[in-house]
Amino acid sequence: MPSNTVAAVLAALGFLAGTGVGTLGAAAQQIGVDQWGISEANDAITDEKVVSAGIETDNGLAVMLQCSGGKGFGAVIVPTEPTTKMAFLTMDKSTEVAWRIDEQPAKFEQWVVLEGGPKDPYAVATPTDALAKAILAGGKTLTMRVHGLTTSVQLEGAAPSVLKAMSACGRPAPEKKPNR
User: Would you tell me the crossing angle of helices 158-168 and 129-136 to the nearest 10 degrees?
Assistant: First the structure.
């Protein structure tokens, strides 16, 4: 199961409101620390299906790619520990997020800062096809920096979850390049 903080942020976004966290079947893995997983739920107000692929880190951040209602596809960085939550408290409406896969050049993007509840801020980017496609292209590690906090997550096991979230929003899977 996602941590209480992650579940609270998803609920604040309308993703899990009133529904609890569902699974995609016996083979589905739940989002966890250093474990890519997926959750599926219906919004309590709109009944829209929400699919979230993500991973939590041991240093207080969760990274998720989410599809809401088959339309909105975005990435969310959620602070899960008190010290990381403090770093996210800001009056700014946006923040720079840097990310890279392995040794590839870093991408620098402006993400929106939202508040998920009393003192539970998080950063959101939509659309986020570039990040999802980079994860699916292969590599071992995704490294991200936001508010001066840097975290790295392994990408092993990420593809099935990310593909499920992309598919829920009608995003095509990247084409596989032939081996040379």
Answer: 140
CA 180 distance to own-chain centroid = 32
Summarize pLDDT for 108-142 with one digit per residue, the tens: 999 988 876 555 777 888 778 889 999 999 899 99
φ/ψ (deg, to 5) at 164: -65, -45
CA dist 38 and 179 (Å) reads 29
CA pseudo-torsion sign 102, 105, 108, 109: negative
List all residues 6 or more positions away from 28 whose beta carbon is below 8 Å from its beta carbon: 37, 38, 40
Kindly report whether the peptide bond that precedes residue 160 is cis, defined as omega within 30 degrees of 0: no
> Which residues share a beta bridge with 55?
63
Please tell me the distance from the alpha carbon of residue 130 to that of residue 98, in angstroms, as a whole number: 13
Report whether 39 contacts 21 (CB < 8 A).
yes
Going by the DSSP 8-state scheme, the letter that residue 70 receives in this structure is T
